[in-house]
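User: My collaborator sent over this chain with a note saying "see what the structure looks like." That's all I know about it. Can you take a look?
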Amino acid sequence: MSGEPKAKTLAKRYYHKRVELFRLIDKIKLWPSRRGVLHGIKSIEKVGDTAFITTHCNKTFMVNNSRNSRAARWLRNKWFKDVCTACGVPDWKLAKYSSTQFKRHYGSLLLEDNKKQ
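Assistant: Without extra context I'll predict from the sequence alone. Here is the result:
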């Protein structure tokens, strides 16, 4: 037996593929910019069908709640070029995000506690 601790294997998380963008962002807390940079989300202020998102690098912008938007597709398919150095997204969060699976007929719908069936 060696003295080295074994590396933990991350459990796969399964979410439905067509989940609303706001529910997905609330859970993952990551945002892909149009240039392909992955940012960490500090706060989300929902106003009806739009939300104001503030990243850890203090960028604020407004997004619409859409299941097939660019950001929703990029999050589901894990498309990004780089990670924002100013946001300081930790490695464990990126590993957890990379082990997440999106399936069409299987996984959590990310419903709120009072709306679970």
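A starting point for your reply to your collaborator: Residues 78 and 98 are 7 Å apart (CA to CA).
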